[in-house]
Amino acid sequence: MTERRTMTINMGPQHPSTHGVLRLVLELDGEIVVRCTPHIGYLHTGMEKIAESKRYQQVIPITDRMDYLAPLSNNLAYVLAVEKLLGIEVPPRAQVIRVMLTELTRIASHLVWLATHAIDIGAMSVFLYAFREREAIVDMYEQVSGARMMSSYFRVGGLFADLPEGFERTVQSFIASFPDRLAEYEDLLTKNPIWIERTRGVGVIKPEDAVDLGLSGPSLRACGIAWDIRKSNPYSGYEQFRFEMSRGTHGDVYDRYLCRIFEMQQSVAIVRQTLESLPGGPVVVADPKLIPPPKPMVKQSMEALIHHFLLWSAGFTVPAGEVYQSIESPRGEYGVYLVSDGSNTPYRVHFRAPSFVNLQSLPRMVEGRLVADLVAIIGSIDIVLGEVDR
Amino acid sequence: MDNLKEAEEDLTVSKLREGFPEATFSVRSFRNETTLLIKPGDLIRICRHLKEDPGLLYDFLSDLTAVDRLGDHPRFEVVYHLYSLQYKRWIGLKLHVEEGEAVPSVTSVWGTANWHEREVFDMFGIRFEGHPDLRRILMPEEWEGCPLRKDYPVQAAPKWWEEGTAGD
What is the average pLDDT across A274-281? Predict the structure, then answer.
């Protein structure tokens, strides 16, 4: 018999290890994946279309809902894009707080990745531990913004409000205990023979393929390519902070794991520096056309009343033009392409979502591997379907 | 746009002119971002040059999208954002296309363009010539209309929903 018979099966869209509503059509030869075709769009909610009918500040909550594991990273990219169009820079205190919170977000996001990735491969305890630590960060979101997940804390022109009383102490105690906790997770996994067996040499992608397919973030660095937007095109004052870029060598699932663990350690280092260097001063720009006046002033000053009324009824206008602002989100390059026609709503917003682009390299990683490896590989590229489908 | 002014010749532009004298393009600079306005016919050759010239090496296509300028002619803008990983440089490319006109696909230059071009096709209905697998990506295959066009309503239900004929 020379005829080769393959079987086509559906994985997802409701499969627990596809991390959301991802559907993969797999062509199998025995247990080997011959072809893998992703089908996406189940979570498409037209966020770019909706953004075209919102005022500039009103788009911020939409960005939260895209990558719901790293809401503040998305907020940051969007507000930086609008600020670039406006040609303004936020005060130093706001910049440092933004860096502090986006790095905490990176830790929180990587913890969810670690938890779900580990449970996919069968390591239950890591799941429970990682969620415990993530809870501490989610509590911090709640302290600053009032919301645990959809925080929308950053605003065009600065922040929603200054940090609450005692917040720095909360962060301090978290970063004091977190490195030891992270070492415990490493004890559970890094040298664990079962973990290594499941991840080492699995889902390998060559560096040239990774660049060709636009892979970014830890998955690209795991191939040995030194590319981190915080280093190459610093934003929000990242150039002031000392940290190292994660680097892998093999481009496999294990190296992606090591890269993300290393990034969490580096994020702790950045958060520590932000606490040490946190300047005083305002957290919003001094521009009454952009930032609503303090409430008591509205009752005393005619000017303030007019600004208040205009900002809450019509918002602010942004000069015509277009910009592209990218940041290093926990998943890779998160870019915002923003086109303004000079009015108070964006003419066009495009979100370059890292999960969408990274998912495209999945077939390259899984074809020729076992079905069981597929689960490990999906976990290792760390996708969020809300961001894939937007 | 008024505040888009002719850019000073930056390194990428001078190198591109040097290595590729016959190409016609204009340069715009806004907020320290340089964008080259090119013609669809030159797209593939310029992209290849940007990617392969040892002094440029724009090997990373980070983003590809479109803008609908309803009322203008040509109607659409297709935008490309490139990074050079080695030189840590950024450049944007832009071309104008009329409705119904096809754009050459850059999938042969950067593999990542595959899904981006499918998304633009899905959302704007712009066809990419030479694309290996041009079909809708986010919307259902049988969907009518292109949601990100400016003449498509923000809130609209498909016909089968309005008529209650789902599953027929």
Answer: 90
